[in-house]
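Because discrete structure vocabularies remain unfamiliar, we reproduce here a specimen of the format, pairing a chain with its fold in token form:
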Amino acid sequence: MEFEREKVILAATMAATFKPDLMTNDKIEAATRGHGTLVIPVLCAANSIAEDILRGIDVKLVDASAPEIPLDIIVERAIKAAKNAGASPENAALIVAALAYFSGAAARAGVPMANRKLGALARIHAGACRTSAIALVTNKFTHRIPAFPAYKAVYELLLEKKLTRVDGAKLPPFIAGGAIYGHSALGEDINVPELAKNAAKVATEAMMKAMEGAGITAYPLWPALIGAAVTMEIVHPDSFLGEEYGPFGTVDSAYAAGLGAVEAAKLPAKIHVRGTGEEFDTAKVIGDFGLILKDIGGPSVIGSMALNEIFAGFQESAIIGAGFSGGPVNPPLGHLCGDVVPAIRLLLKHGGDVYKAAEDVKKYKLESFIDPEMALCALNTIARKAEEVMRGPVTRTLILASEDTRDRAIYRRAVKAYEMIKAGKSVEEVARVLDEERKEYVEKRGSMILSAFTGKKIELKFTELRPQARRKDPFTKKYWGFDSYISYDVVIEDKKYHIENLSAKAVPEYVLEGKGAEDPLYGLALFAGAVIAQELQYIGHTIINVTVPAAVAAILGLDPKEAAKAAERGAYLTRAIPGAKENAKEVARIAKKIYEALLQEKHEILPP
């Protein structure tokens, strides 16, 4: 019996990990050519950049009288990697410029005759067309907002002469455009800081109002980025500010734009890289990205989404409105770019030692997520898929950070499935128990994380999780993620709430009718349920609660097709989106094949 158990568990584990696609319902094969997501182009570009820097190529953007500098090599190779993974030229330029910047490249360098800017350099290498910041669009927060509101706000105030005290109509001839203005008191001390800061401020505020007008939350990162980019189209990009801002050559006009955008968006003054704790001046980052974005071309909304997730590599991602991949909820695999910048910075910190970098990645992942086991499984899946396109130190780091956790997660489920089925339980019962166990874990750890985040004690328990909060069709009846009926009890600071039908009833009533708005804790009760419920809704990224029980059941005699159907039926929470049944059937067939080979006692020599 012990030998059977060993072989069953080994076969099921090997089958579940046979290829990354079998770990998930997300369509990751399509992502290898950029369809609908840029996570794999981001990972491939990161591999290229990290590899080049670690082999000694200087990433710094320099003021050099030369047609090419080392950064040209890094950018050109990384763009090739991103394009090979399916990124369009404009999106490849954006991805690579962002990763190069966070790897140590400056946003600008040089004087007019040797002028280099990172955004333009990336765009030229990518072969993308030049356009203005009007082509920029926010990340998709249900909807997305193009840059037009920022332009409207800035240009209306320009026409009214309200962005700077300096009135161009009063300037004597031969002042504007020369050193008497641009490199002197009127320009560096007065006009440039005023114009840059004020324009970025009103542009950012306009983007936030437009987002609210579209019925979405005004998450601050993208309004600030677009506000800075629109501003840097107007303001002299190579102008330095007066001594009150710092010694000559240290603080430029982009920084002033960043200050205005940060103030308007109420962003924190400093942001910190996960894993390393390195501190970045937020105004400098926002201003530099304004300079990058004005030159980058016209990235699509998935380019904006990729950049948003790259910013999730900062500890403050939830505060600044960056991507979902920084936690605490683990999103679908298409979003998982948030570990790229930390991985690069950790590799540089540890001199290319992927094992040390991997330990640090694993450490912050364990601390940052409601369900770190599932988060690490998801990370492993997408990193392995990216390696089918391009291997490198970043994906290797991410795989090493997550491999042991993934293997333990699958092994534990295989053991439980074996023991339950041997005790007479059905595969459907096994899958349901696994989902119930995860629900309880998510409730407990989610409550703990939200308590720490909000500073208020929160305890949440779901009372009902099922499909069809408002629909009646067969599809949503089967897959609960598309129309979720979510009800729960939550206690906040000893005050009890029952939320019935969160998405179809409670949230619309709160937003449209003001129901509960008089209670300052009621909105927090809705927030808590939304966060923890979405951790359960997005489980399509890792479907081992379906595939592993199906594999064990098939080995123990059940038809693979029937085992897959029953496992999906039982895993009522993992069955959020379609696809698990098909993958489970494949895993079950592979598991049977491996098990049959393991039963062969003698080593057979294959014929030549």
Observations:
- The chain has three domains: 1-25+425-601, 28-128+305-404, 133-295.
- The first helix runs from residue 2 to 16.
- The CA atoms of residues 178 and 184 lie 9 Å apart.
- The chain has a mean pLDDT of 95.
